[in-house]
Amino acid sequence: MEIKELERVEYAGVFGKVSQLGHEQVVFCYDEATGLKAIIAIHNTVLGPALGGTRMWNYANEHEALTDVLRLSRGMTYKASISGLNLGGGKAVIIGDAKTMKTEAFLRRFGKFVNSLNGKYITAEDVNMKTADMEYISMETKHVTGLSEARGGGGDPSPVTAYGVYLGMKATTKKVFGSDNLEGKKIAVQGVGQVGMYLVEHLVKENAKVFITDIHEEKVKALAQKFGVTGVGQDEIYDLDVDIYAPCALGATLNDATIPRLKCRVIAGAANNQLKDEVKNGYQLIDRGIAYAPDFLINAGGLINVYNEFLGNYNRKNVFEQAEKIYDTCLNILHLAEREKITSQEAAIKLSEKRIEEVGRIRISR
Ligand code: NAD
Questions:
Q1: Residue 249 beta carbon below 6 angstroms from any ligand 1 atom
Q2: Cα of 271 to ligand 1 centre, how many Å?
Q3: How many domains does the chain have?
């Protein structure tokens, strides 16, 4: 890189950002031969090694990638803590086009970077990273989880995630309606991918009246027919007269534009970072009388699944049993939020931080 270009890099901005969210360590990985550019962010390792997936994305610039990895790794710290797991929070992003850049050497080089952290960071699949990619990474490091069942892994985490979302939805329904029975409840599911589809299955079994949408219209048609549910348009989902909205596609769908349109009383879904502005949009939901099940709590089933794989002696039945705790935790958080007049997201973060602080204290005390 030319000196002139180096001068333009905003060094102060990088350290400013890293210190803002309390990260322990951020590793910039570069390999000229393969073109690999990755950032590994370790947010907090008080409870255990930092576990979090690797996301590959064509970020508009490096600062966007840094912001994403810092935000996502902090989320993993809270998710592990609130779920009672002995894990810290971390995440990695690879900058570039997942369709053209992922060669064997590229992925193995990334694996070597993960390995250089000696287990302080454990990686897994995330957006644009497939099981086959993880297998190349695992050739260079044992600090990988979320492998296929054929490779001794726990397999698809989506059914566990969907089960946790379903239980979080029931707990929130209990808080709002006095009963957690979903029979006859009108529920809008946005995104019928891996998690959304399994969620719909649970809801249909309980005789809820389900509406689904997705960008893939043919998928909506096929699932509507398979489950006897109603397919609706992508934008229409926000205006439906429903009891429950389940965002299972993208983040930030709870924002200034959508919240005034919602008629539901409960929001419970799988997507990460559903609130565009955690504080402002969280309080807007309270003002509109809508109860929100914190996303990082109720979608923790996938993390519970890979954590069990990481511990060894993986047992699918135990994993589902552990995910059942989401119901009580969700209810406790909703009560705490009400008592303290804070948002459920703030209450969940408060409980996560409390556990990290308390465990951290006993670990340094003699
Ligand atoms: P997926 O990619 O299989 O499914 C997402 C679905 O949403 C796709 O069918 C996609 O077409 C659809 N979609 C995208 N944009 C949309 C839009 N604007 N409107 C309607 N539909 C749209 O992903 P998944 O594994 O089912 O995960 C769903 C969400 O849950 C993601 O946000 C993911 O990060 C989160 N999550 C998943 C897991 C897991 O175990 N898979 C765990 C935790 C969190």
A1: yes
A2: 6
A3: 2
